[in-house]
Amino acid sequence: MSAILRMKKADLTAYAIEHMSRVINYVKRNRAEGTNSNAEHSRWRYSLMNWVNDPLKR
């Protein structure tokens, strides 16, 4: 994922654009879901951090 973030817009492939779209949709769905437990050490947070998104940082 981080390699895609470093690519110039003109160099993006169809696969890279599709992958970015999937990541964005995953993060949106899971951030909207939220968590009821201690967010700092929750599976929800670690799952999102695997996708390069820390829900505790804005």
UniProtKB/TrEMBL annotation:
Matches recorded under InterPro entries: DUF3140
Pfam families: DUF3140
UniProt protein name: DUF3140 domain-containing protein
The organism of origin for this protein: Cryobacterium melibiosiphilum
